[in-house]
Design brief:
Number of helices: 16
Protein name: Long-chain fatty acid--CoA ligase
Number of domains: 3
GO molecular function: ligase activity, forming carbon-sulfur bonds
Domain AMP-binding enzyme C-terminal: 433-508
Strand content: 25-35%
Distance between the termini: 52 Å
Strand order of the largest sheet: 2-1-11-10-12-13-14-15-16
CATH class of the largest domain: Alpha Beta
CATH architecture of the largest domain: 3-Layer(aba) Sandwich
Shape: globular
Organism: Kribbella jiaozuonensis
Number of strands: 26
Radius of gyration: 23 Å
Structural class: alpha/beta
Keywords: Ligase
Largest sheet: 9 strands, mixed
């Protein structure tokens, strides 16, 4: 299935049903369908052909998300550009992905103005929600057009039915770029169809789900929309992250499904109105994108309800490498399965997961090594980067870069990112294990553990913590707390308290930035 097929499937279940809702205004399935036809026709008139690359630079917005379906209907390839990127990174991604058209919100016009002259491959710039100050509907001598939304889409006619292959490329997504130049992950329609099938197989849906999207639609929150649309559900889009508004919208719209990274879930748990909010409509509250504190997860199960649902994946194998549905958080007697909460669940039904040693040999149950994956969920490769593609697919498996193990019941445990493992005094210390120990302290809201050079130990374990508002707990108490749980070898030698931790565009803690700050004092 193509991306637009999920929209059309939902429309077949009721064209007048609510599709996209934002700020109290709703577009029906029929309205989003018609909008997708207009966008496809406008792209066709602009010269975009099947296989062309079209980028969207926008915060969460219903019209911007509708453009995804117009791009797909035209047989083009969606290139989501994160609005939190710096201008130079966006310029690099747009050029690297060979984008022809850039659709952007007016809020990002200053950014676009800075990089436009260095994007010779982009022939059309479209302002999504207004008229650019230097708009010109006619091509420049260079062949470029800078147009507003009405000029772009107003005269578009419905294009002829396309005959694109359902297995064509659907999107190119940039990796985070925190460890070097970002790469373009090529995801085909078949990859996203597998992800959608696994979502529908693994988690409770039912009829007409209501999905609340707070996290950026350019990432996990966006691709989780496709199974919702295929079920004829409604997507409530939040334009900006606001935990208090998030809690208010759940009972107002009868939200059944939502997704947040752990950092935002910690903020939900800290919200004073949480316990008085009616969350009875929730069926599935996904968490993922980063490790979650076991202590906070247990708190969420008690205060939010038995609806927490983990998903583990990465851009190269989206969302569903392994799953831990709500019921799996409890044992047969109905009690919280505490020993299982630190796992990433079991490998998904259509995915093969193994643990590999450095020599390419697969390791037995219980042994730690790199998590490797096979199946139709795995990307086509990195766009125009055969060396990176070959490295990621060595020995015939996709290499995740995560260290983990499978237990005797085939539950997957992620120990650390390979690059984040600390070797201190000859012992391997996994940063996530130390983070879990510190997060069990009620005064710790979030933390990150890194290794720092040390003359005696080679590396010393250093923890940077963000405390709960009003907390006065000191570093010595936190070190003693960790020692009591994981021993003196693994416990941090140093604890620093910061007001906040540096985070990526999707809310992940950026450990290279922490290391850089520590190196400069």
């Amino acid at each position: 299935m193509r991306l637009v097929d999920y929209l059309d499937k939902g429309a077949s279940l009721g064209p007048d049903a609510a599709c996209l809702t934002t700020d109290g205004e709703t577009l029906s399935y029929a309205e989003v369908q018609q909008l997708s036809y207009r966008i496809a026709g406008a792209l066709e008139a602009t010269g975009v052909r099947p296989g062309g690359k079209v980028a969207i630079l926008s915060a969460n917005d219903p019209i911007a998300f509708s453009c995804v379906f117009g791009i797909s209907r035209a047989g083009a390839i969606w290139c989501p550009i994160n609005p939190r990127n710096e201008a130079a990174e966006n310029r690099e991604l747009l050029d690297q992905f060979d984008c022809e058209v850039l659709i952007y919100q007016s809020a990002f016009a200053p950014l676009v103005d800075r990089i436009r002259d260095s994007l010779p491959k982009v022939h059309t710039f479209v302002c999504l929600d207004g008229e650019p100050t230097d708009s010109d509907p006619d091509p420049h001598p260079s062949g470029r057009r800078i147009v507003g939304w009405d000029a772009f889409s107003g005269g578009a006619s419905q294009p002829a039915p396309d005959l694109t292959d359902p297995d064509d490329l659907a999107m190119i997504v940039g990796t985070g770029g925190t460890t070097g130049r970002p790469k373009g992950v090529m995801l085909g329609n078949a990859n996203l169809e597998t992800m959608t099938a696994l979502t529908l197989m693994g988690y409770p849906f039912g009829e007409r789900p209501v999905y609340l999207a707070l996290a950026p639609l350019t990432h996990a929150a966006g691709v989780l929309c496709f199974p919702v649309l295929a079920s004829g559900g409604e997507i409530v889009i939040m334009r900006a992250p606001d935990v208090h508004a998030f809690l208010e919208l759940i009972p107002r719209h009868g939200v059944t499904h939502t997704f947040l990274p752990p950092t935002l879930i910690y903020m939900v748990l800290a919200a004073p109105e949480l316990d008085s909010t009616d969350l009875s409509s929730l069926r599935c509250f996904w968490y993922g994108a980063a490790p979650m504190s076991v202590a906070r997860l247990e708190e969420a199960l008690q205060r939010i309800g038995p609806v927490m649902a983990q998903l583990f994946g990465q851009t190269e194998a989206p969302m569903m490498i392994s799953i831990l549905p709500p019921a799996a958080h409890f044992d047969a007697s109905g009690n919280i399965a505490r020993g299982r909460l630190s796992s990433a669940g079991r490998p998904s039904p259509l995915v093969t997961v193994a643990i590999m040693g450095a020599d390419g040999a697969l390791l037995p149950s219980g042994e730690r090594g790199e998590i490797v994956v096979r199946g139709s969920l795995v990307m086509r490769g990195y766009y125009r980067n055969p060396d990176a593609t070959a490295a990621a697919s060595a020995y015939g498996w996709h290499h995740t870069g995560d260290i983990g193990y499978l237990d005797g019941d085939n539950f997957l445990y992620i120990v650390d990112r390979a690059k984040d493992m600390i070797i201190t005094g000859g012992f391997n210390v996994y940063s996530t294990e130390v983070e879990q120990a510190l997060m069990a302290h009620t005064d710790v809201q979030d933390c990150a553990v890194v290794g720092q050079p040390d003359e005696k130990w080679g590396e010393r374990v250093v923890a940077v913590v963000q405390l709960q508002p009003g907390s006065l707990v000191g570093p010595d108490e936190l070190i003693a707390f960790a020692k009591a749980r994981i021993g003196s070898v693994k416990a941090p030698k140093q604890v620093l308290v910061w007001h906040d931790l540096p985070r990526s565009k999707v809310g992940k803690v950026v450990k290279p930035e922490i290391k850089a700050r520590l190196a400069t004092g």
